[in-house]
Amino acid sequence: MISTIQPQSFAIFARSAYGDLLMTAPLINFIKQQNPGHKITLFVEDKNSQLVEFMENIDAYYQIPSKGNKYLLYALYGLKHRKNKYDISIAAKTGIGTANGFFPYMLGAKIRISYVSNKKRWTDWMINHPISYDESIYHEQHYALGILQLLDKNIDHIHKNLYPKLTKIISEKDTEKITIFVSVSNNRNASQLKNITIAKILNQLNHTYDISVYISTVEDDIEKATNLQKLLDFNSSIKLTPSLKDYLILINSMDLCFFGDGGGMHMAAALGVNQIVLFGPTSTLTWMPLSDLATVLSDKSDVMSDKSDVNNIPINRILSALETKLNTIKLNKQST
User: Fold this and answer.
1) 117 and 189 both lie in a single domain
2) Which residues of 298-333 are buried (b: 16+ CB within 10 A; e: fewer)?
3) Residue 333 confidence (pLDDT)
4) DSSP 265
5) Which three-class secondary structure state does DSSP give residue 90?
6) 167 lies in a domain?
């Protein structure tokens, strides 16, 4: 483990999607716990930068354009910020890639930490504190744990006090009805329950619980959201969230989120919102939300399979999980 006793400056390089970015939070929180005097700067792609302002323990961040020649951009932005003289850089990815070595090298950090392939590529030689990567690091543990182990390979689990948290989101909750968030937008078809199934489940729940449903959608899926609304036997609302902040405010106002795996589940977890998450081909072991309030159901638990699909999960199993959550939520509402 790199010594983190004395205050040092860290440059954390995080690419990819919102969920991947949130999975760097345990590492960031761990660094700050070692010494609150550590300064953490996050380098993120511009498409994900909206999330950073709501994350904890980040002292500064810079955006790197996600479009264009990546090597030219990494060279440009690395050299631009080299003047900051970072002590340690970490390519926060449970995996390998040429950017992991190239950008930190251009940034000029004294200590450059990253996973590297066994057959070293040219950019791997730019890492002066390499960690050998094998597929078990990704497939046999949580993704965020693999990122934590970049700094300390002896960490074997993620403490709850390191879980991601999103702050500065203020929402009002309905004090009477139980509010449920559902989404018709998911970039993985095998992780999206069919509208007719969602409607069947929600209509049945509405017979027992006083629920109010909010259907989240992106612009391209408005027709799909309207179709779901027509299938429901009770009033519901369709919600377009033009910005990430709007999306977070909506989730934070809910009593329960019910959707397929994706970035939304990590945001709900970081906001401390109850959720039932359906997993298709995505590994629950690697990607389950870091939250005690999340219940995960999968077609094939902990096994990657291209044939897995959330629509194969028995409806009765989904209903049972939802009813358990709703009973707890109902009791909590009655006691307040």
Assistant:
1) no
2) bbbeeeeeeebbbbebeeeebeebbeebbeebbeeb
3) 87
4) H
5) strand
6) no
- Exposure b/e, 29-51, CB count within 10 A at least 16 = b: bbbbebeeebbbbbbbbeebbeb
Amino acid at site 36:
P
What's the rounded Cα separation, in Å, for the pair 68 and 129?
29
Tell me the percentage of the chain whose pLDDT exceeds 70: 96
Identify the domain containing residue 253 by its residue range: 178-334
Residues 267 and 18 sit within 8 Å (Cβ to Cβ): yes
C-alpha span between 261 and 283 (Å, rounded): 10
Number of domains in the chain: 2
**96-106 tens-digit pLDDT:** 999 999 999 99
Indicate if 184 and 315 belong to the same structural domain.
yes
Contact 168, 50 (CB under 8 A): no
Q: Judge contact between 93 and 121, C-beta under 8 A.
A: no
Confidence bin at 1 (pLDDT 50/70/90): low
For 334, the enclosing helix (H) or strand (E) is helix 315-335
Q: How far is CA 11 from the centre of its chain?
A: 20
CA distance 196 to 174: 27
Q: What is residue 134's DSSP assignment?
A: -
User: CA torsion, points 136, 138, 139, 141, in degrees to nearest 10?
Assistant: 90
Structure tokens at 185: 């937008």
Residues 6+ apart with CB under 8 A from 259: 181, 182, 183, 186, 265, 275, 277, 278
What would the two tokens of residue 20 be? 């991947």
State the Cα–Cα distance between residues 12 and 61, nearest whole angstrom: 9
Q: Are residues 196 and 292 in the same domain?
A: yes
